[in-house]
Each structure stands twice: as structure tokens, then as C-alpha cells.
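Session log. Operator J.P. requested a structure for one protein chain; no other inputs attached. Running the standard single-chain path with C-alpha cell output.
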Amino acid sequence: MFFQKEKIENGISYFIQNCSKTHKANPYKLYVYTFLAYVDFKHLEKYGVPVFDFTYTAMEFGPVPMEMHFDKMFTQSDLYEFVDRPKEEEITVRSSGISPDMDYFSENEMDIINDLIVKLKMLRNTEAIVDLCHNEIKPWEKAWNEKDRTRNQNVINWKEHIIPLIDSKDKEYIIEKITDYYSTKEYLLDKYDYLDLESIE
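Structure written below.
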């Protein structure tokens, strides 16, 4: 995927800089997880394709990006760093102060990102963030209720939620957006088999 690393890192940087301004402190890791899952899910709902394309597992406090949480991908960058301090209950994320490049994002993506930032300005504690995550990201609840507490068996299945939405939308439009986003059809056929890409020229 073209520029996906840059997109993830600049998106996280933009988010944490805005959070830091609002709450006068570095955001917790949980806030970043909520940001990634919320933006991916809301964009999937509207356009049939995620923004960051993480695989999420359902944990008690909400969806968790597995590549970041388990494999520690994207936890260190020139734009930010995850900081684990012994006296802190939770890992925080600190900006380097470098301005993020938001040209990697479309207007629709920025609308969703900024919508979440506005919502978070009205939330003053972690409990409220968790409630937002649980209420807004519906597939989390199904995966959490069906969990058996293994890493791979409570992965959130977006397809079950997205297919009915896609059936009511313009599939040609959605396919165009997806192919603009990803670099190879082989990846599309594997990742988005529920869209029946082979049937579309």
C-alpha cells in the first residue's frame, strides 16, 4: 500500500497534538487506539474501506490494533513516541513537535478525524472515552461477547457489519474508492472478497 506507513504516523501525530492542546497533557495509548479504530470503522461504514487498515481485537476497553499492541509497530516515529514510565498506570504518547503532513488524507477522511477530535474535546476522562468507543464502534460488542480470550479468536469481523451497508450503496463507487486507495488488485481480492471484485471490470 502506497504511503500507508506515512499515513498512519502522520494521522497519529495530528491526533495526539490536538489531544495535547485540549487536555494539556500527553494522551494515553488508549486514546490512540480509540482514534485508529473509530476512524477506520466510520470510514468503513460510509465508504467500504478503512483509513489505517489495522486488524483489531476486542478487549475490555475497546478495539485494539493488533499490529501496534502485540507487534509494537508504529509505536516509535520521528513524529511521536510511546512513553512507558514506571510510575504511570498507562503508556502515554508524546509528540516530537514536528507538524504532521495531512496531505496524505482525503477530505472525507479528514472530516471523520476532525469529528472525533471535536467529540473528544467534550470528554474529560478515560471512562468517557471508553464509553464513546463502545457506543460508536458496534462490531466491538459482538466480538467481545463472543470472545474466548485468545489472541486470534476475538478479532473484530468488520465484514458482518459492513456487508448490509454496502448492499444499500453504489458498489461501483465504493470499488473506485478502494482501488484508488490500494496498490494491487491481488491485495483487494484477498482483503475485500465480500465485495465480489472479480465481477467488476
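Operator note: The longest strand covers residues 56-59.
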